[in-house]
Amino acid sequence: MASRSSTSTWLVLFVGLLAIFLAPSSASAAEIKTNPTEHGFRLPLPNGVTGAESLAFDTRGKGPYVGVSDGRVLRWGGSAVGWTTFAHHEDYRRIPLCTVPVAPSHETESICGRPLGLAFHRQSGDLYIADAYKGLLRIGSDGGEADVLATGVDGVPFRFVNGIDVDQATSDVYFTDSSLTYPRRFNTEIMMNADVTGRLLKYEARTKQVIVLKDGLPYPNGVAVSHDRTYVVVAHTVPCQAHRYYLQGAKYELMANLSGYPDNVRRDGKGGYWVALNQEKARPDMASMGPVKHLVGVRLDGNGVQVEELTAAKGVTLSEVSERSGRLWLGSVELDYIGLV
Ligand SMILES: *[C@@H]1O[C@H](CO)[C@@H](O)[C@H](O)[C@H]1NC(C)=O
Description:
Layout: H1 4-21, E1 33-36, E2 41-44, E3 55-56, E4 65-67, E5 73-76, E6 83-88, H2 90-94, H3 96-99, H4 105-112, E7 115-121, E8 126-131, E9 135-139, E10 144-145, E11 147-150, E12 152-153, E13 156-157, E14 161-166, E15 173-177, H5 187-192, E16 198-204, E17 209-217, E18 220-225, E19 231-236, E20 241-246, E21 252-257, E22 260-267, E23 273-280, H6 286-289, E24 295-300, E25 306-311, E26 320-324, E27 327-331, E28 337-340
Parallel strand pairs: 1-25, 6-10
Antiparallel strand pairs: 2-28, 3-4, 4-5, 5-6, 7-8, 8-9, 9-11, 12-13, 14-15, 15-16, 16-17, 18-19, 19-20, 20-21, 22-23, 23-24, 24-25, 26-27, 27-28
This protein binds 2-acetamido-2-deoxy-beta-D-glucopyranose (NAG).
Residues 254, 256-257, 304 line the site of 2-acetamido-2-deoxy-beta-D-glucopyranose (NAG).
């Protein structure tokens, strides 16, 4: 792991490399550009925590803010400040085993919280948090103990709150509850048992009510409000697809078949979307092909056509690809660092 002083050296080196990576590509629409991430910069998380599943930058461009395995949202304050605690659920401070880790995080996460989705509301500076166990939370720009906005809808408690995005014009918040049956800790059961009890939800800013937009969904995960704010992209981890939910008319339509199991979705800088992949799809021809590229992310254009892919070393999986000023910040559930390419 890099120390903080070497971190800044790497950053300088890295900016140099970026110029190469981001050089205009002459690829035609039919070619898919491949962007390897192995040589990117690594920003280590504090000792003992993993899982920057989601990343967000505040209205002043500070951050990233990341949700980690012990239930906290951390903020990166630059190499001189490092990571500080920004927000948490009230139980994090109230329950001793959350702050003095005595058990692996997967055994305590239902008690301490597990922030999986982060999205800022630019006008207010508030950060909305999709916490797998604690529900829909919100915290002001000073941080601290997050307010719980909702823990269920229509009398049905949330089970596995996951992806989130804010419509900056209406202040409405879109989020997913991945399953009514299985909590995050048992997420592999969703796939094994072909669970289709996930929901796409909306927290309406005006009424402060949660509304079910679509239920009976297979493993809905990441969400992103479209560039023109006419639809919301929803990633379904199984069956490896992205859908669009049209805000007018409520039509739910297949947008893309994906080459892996998607996690979070974010708008890119070109009218499309970055979709992070937890795992590539097994292909029948894999054995005969020898080692295949290890895919960790894809960029879709606005029509759902895959135009770029990200690859990484074996063992690396991504939960989010967040584009900022032409750079890609990479979050992962399992890793103890975040990446930057
Ligand atoms: C996705 O795959 C299905 C069949 O596997 C196909 O019918 C459909 O047209 C594909 N859709 C897109 C948007 O690629």
